[in-house]
């Protein structure tokens, strides 16, 4: 879902969720103080409105639920728009800038469809709200946040040690013992990185957690799918952190032609080129591949999550898709009338 993708990326900060495809990742930027605080507040307002719409729907007030849900999607789209200057300027991320610009019209269209009576979009709304519920405790409980950041930093440092690097961990400017203590006089760029909340993968985990929580399916399969998604995200996120954490100080991408291009046309500082290439281009591009791969694995266990994905595709294309039918095979049918049981949505019954 393009309107649910991005994360923080400040100078000398490894701050991008691996999958980056989810809804709460942009909130991390505001939470870490690298983006306008008003943006984070607007995101929480949107999530609160999403939850309110779901509550109204569960009580049978479908009309008010549609209107509140539509307002929530509009607020969510405006939030993304407020992030664009940060993505373009400080983060210098073309991918996140483009996604931020696309998010507003997509969210406005989603709100319009919901307001016009497409109640099946409430499952997508529920997924976004569940993402917020998963992420919110991590952000608001200090000892949980500290533990997650410093544990991720320690695990990343262990990964560096396996490759022959042992810089040690020191306190970073964010107040956590999460900065890799490379000696600036001994490295190529004189820079280092430190771990922030967005580096922990919690945003990406919240994405899949929200999708899984939003659908109806046996608890055992939902738990298995969630465990698989979290495990794969954790491993790939650790690899990404090690890669960026070494590429930045040791200048793996400080080739003269690349430095010249980035400083001349992209407005980058010369010493930041390796960080920006590793973080904003290589890692973020591979994160899209990772998103597709993890989604495929989760769908094999929990095909029910195709329901909110169908709704996302409808928003993007205006065309109805039956992903269950498309992914079904003769040996492994995916439809409720031929294979693993799943509950159809009202919208599917109408079709």
What does this protein look like?
With 351 residues, this protein is mostly helical. The protein contains 13 helices and four strands. It has helices at residues 25-31, 37-58, 62-88, 94-115, 122-140, 142-162, 202-214, 219-250, 256-265, 273-301, 306-317, 323-327, 346-350, and strands at 13-14, 169-171, 177-180, 194-195. Strands 1-4 form a two-stranded parallel sheet. A two-stranded antiparallel sheet has the order 2-3. α7 (202-214) runs antiparallel to α8 (219-250). The chain is globular, with a radius of gyration of 21 Å. The two termini are 23 Å apart.
Helix content: 55-70%
Number of strands: 4
Largest beta sheet, briefly? 2 strands, parallel
Helix tally equals 13
**Residue-averaged pLDDT:** 81
Order of strands, widest sheet: 1-4
Silhouette? globular
**Strand residues, percent:** under 5%
Radius of gyration: 21 Å
Order of helices and strands: EHHHHHHEEEHHHHHHH
* Poorly predicted runs of 5 or more residues: 1-35, 330-351
**Structural class determined from secondary elements:** mainly alpha
Span between N and C termini?
Answer: 23 Å
């Amino acid at each position: 879902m393009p309107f649910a993708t991005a994360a923080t990326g400040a100078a000398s900060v490894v701050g991008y969720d691996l999958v980056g495809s989810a809804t709460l990742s942009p909130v991390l930027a505001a939470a870490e103080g690298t983006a306008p605080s008003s943006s984070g507040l607007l995101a929480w307002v949107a999530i609160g409105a999403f939850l309110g719409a779901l509550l109204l729907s569960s009580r049978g007030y479908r009309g008010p639920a549609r209107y509140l849900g539509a307002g929530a999607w509009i607020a969510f789209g405006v939030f993304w728009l407020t992030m664009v200057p940060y993505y373009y300027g400080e983060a210098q991320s073309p991918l996140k800038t483009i996604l931020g610009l696309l998010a507003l019209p997509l969210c406005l269209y989603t709100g319009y469809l919901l307001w016009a009576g497409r109640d099946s979009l409430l499952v997508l709304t529920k997924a976004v709200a569940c993402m917020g519920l998963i992420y919110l405790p991590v952000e608001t409980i200090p000892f949980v946040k500290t533990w997650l950041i410093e544990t991720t930093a320690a695990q990343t440092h262990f990964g560096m040690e396996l490759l022959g690097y042992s810089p040690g961990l020191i306190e970073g400017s964010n107040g956590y013992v999460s900065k890799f203590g490379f000696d600036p006089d001994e490295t190529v760029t004189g820079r280092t990185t430190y771990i922030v909340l967005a580096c922990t993968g919690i945003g990406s985990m919240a994405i899949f957690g929200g999708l899984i929580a939003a659908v109806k399916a046996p608890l055992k399969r939902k738990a298995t799918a969630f465990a698989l998604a979290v495990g794969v995200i954790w491993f790939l996120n650790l690899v990404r952190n090690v890669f960026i954490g070494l590429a930045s100080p040791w200048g793996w991408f400080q080739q003269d032609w690349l430095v010249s291009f980035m400083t001349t046309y992209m407005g980058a500082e010369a010493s930041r080129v390796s960080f920006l290439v590793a973080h904003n281009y290589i890692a973020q591009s591979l994160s899209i591949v990772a998103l597709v791969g993890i989604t495929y694995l989760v769908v094999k266990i929990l095909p029910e999550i195709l329901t909110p994905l169908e709704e996302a595709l409808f928003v993007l294309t205006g065309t109805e898709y039956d992903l269950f039918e498309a992914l079904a095979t003769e040996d492994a049918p995916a439809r409720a009338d031929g294979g693993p049981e799943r509950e159809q949505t009202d919208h599917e019954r109408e079709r």
